[in-house]
Write a structure and sequence with these properties.
Chains A, B: It comes from Frateuria flava. Chains A, B: Pfam families: MerR_1. The structure is a homodimer. By secondary structure, chain A is mostly helical. In chain A, strand 2 and strand 3 form a beta hairpin. Chain A has six helices and three strands. Chain A has helices at about 5-15, 15-25, 45-55, 60-70, 80-105, 120-130, and strands at about 5, 35, 40. Chain A has a three-stranded antiparallel β-sheet. Chains A and B meet through helix 3, helix 5 and helix 6 of A and helix 3, helix 5 and helix 6 of B. The structure holds a DNA duplex (30 and 30 nucleotides).
DNA sequence: GCTTGACCTCAAGTGGACTTGAATTCGTAG
DNA sequence: CTACGAATTCAAGTCCACTTGAGGTCAAGC
């Protein structure tokens, strides 16, 4: 049998079943049918979920992604949109790299206050410029975390 | 007069006044006093806000930051914690860089489906590994954005 | 001295992304 | 054939980071 049940998909992707059901309701994935009540997924759902994960890390909202998938079979994902997203991501990366350097420096800098350190000053300026909202914090993934 | 009123701070940081009041309530910033009802901020609040912005982009939650500031004057921000954060950020950056390459490639790739392209396949694998939760989407900053 | 408009407070609302819980239905092992 | 555990639905709840709105205050300009 090449069908995967929800637990199997959860196991292979690390996403909790609740999330998979949620994604299905949002139109991000589809099940091929049911075995009794139970959803059965085709193996391609794994690829699709990887794509969702990818899109999310690139900053797409779930609704954006659902849109891309719905229209995306034929009308092709807008190349300009992709390029724009890549550029935006590039700016984000540069900023994060600066932040990373600042953190590393701060973790070893002997200055009494980071605020007095010229390196840190520069970091602050970089971090403040073209900020991107990177909402909440990273959280424990895998197996139904207690909260959030 | 070296005091800044909330509008001035808002102007200089790009953060809406509501956010500044919110941050004050959270203990992320403090006003030096009032002029009548109005908060007056010292110029150092700008630096502090830059630090908050920085922390947020590094993935700290507001509460974490408030914690750092509270205890942070003396006990020194934990160096190990900073280093760990830097490492985490580094992984995030690598992943994002891979995603960026994938997006760029996808925006020019003539393949009928990105999924058939080996480059894209690789990207999917990279993006799927060590995922970090990067919640909602980037949003327009500056001057009281309509939503979110 | 009165108006005006920026600022104030406090409670409630919003949006995104999920999670949780109660009540129910099955497939399968014994 | 029955009991059990895993899946199901659907509504409601949670978290975070803010925003909005109603109702009130006050400093400054005319």
């Amino acid at each position: 049998m090449k069908w995967l049940d929800i637990a199997e998909v959860a196991r292979r992707t690390g996403l909790p079943p609740s999330t998979l059901r949620f994604y299905e309701a949002k139109g991000l994935i589809t099940s091929v049918g049911r075995h009794g009540l139970r959803r059965m997924f085709g193996p391609d759902v794994l690829e699709r979920l990887a794509l969702v994960t990818l899109g999310r890390s690139a900053g797409f909202a779930l609704d954006d992604l659902a849109g891309l998938f719905k229209s995306g079979g034929k009308p092709r994902i807008d190349r300009e949109q992709l390029a724009a997203k890549a550029d935006e991501l590039d700016r984000t990366i540069r900023r994060l790299a600066a932040v990373r350097e600042g953190l590393r420096h701060a973790s070893t800098c002997p200055a009494p206050s980071h605020l007095e350190c010229p390196r840190f000053q520069r970091l602050l300026r970089v971090a403040t410029a073209n900020q991107v909202r990177h909402p909440t914090k990273a959280s424990p993934r895998r197996k139904t975390p207690p909260r959030q």
